[in-house]
Amino acid sequence: DIQMTQSPSSLSASVGDRVTITCRASQVISYSLAWYQQKPGRVPKLLIYGASTLESGVPSRFSGSGSGTDFTLTISSLQPEDVATYYCQNYNSALLLTFGGGTKVEIK
Amino acid sequence: EVQLVESGGGLVQPGRSLRLSCEASGFAFDDYALHWVRQAPGKGLEWVSGISWNSDNIVYAESVKGRITISRDNAKKSLFLQMNSLRPGDTAFYYCVKDTRGHIYGVFESWGQGTLVTVSS
Fold this sequence. Notes:
By secondary structure, chain A is an all-beta fold. Chain A has no helices and 11 strands. Chain A is globular and about 35 Å long.
């Protein structure tokens, strides 16, 4: 299996702060990386796929970058509605669809 | 609007079976691959199984292989998950998820609300 390691596991930041979450794959997965947002009590929502392509309707303060094994999700200016747990997910192979452990984002 | 509505969850004893269903609407059902993704209460996400648009390609996570069977009925716009030999570790919310392509690609575009399966004696 391809292991996906996210860091940090949780963070607390102020409104307006720039927030960065990293995701590392145990093997090269090219650009086959998606990010999901799960707000408390809600189902996950697709934010980004192809490592950097924003899903339709997702605010432009969200961005993704990276390739190979190292990826980043950035929130350029944290908003109260961004409180959620964020998951990265590898889809390099249909046989190996794996999620990271999640990063919980809170407002300081 | 894409809608995915799961049903069939509940409390079941270890070793017993359960069949989950997902009824879909709002999109061309037989054009897309579908998946089941689960989440234990308070825990992270785990992909369980996926099926291509025409059922020709089916894949399972190692953790459930041999105990779970995914299937679909395109005429009824429904997805199913037959779960056998259930274990306490299978306790989770089970989400029906739509892929972005007809073959198993693995980008999870739309999610149902989930159905809770609790395995306990």
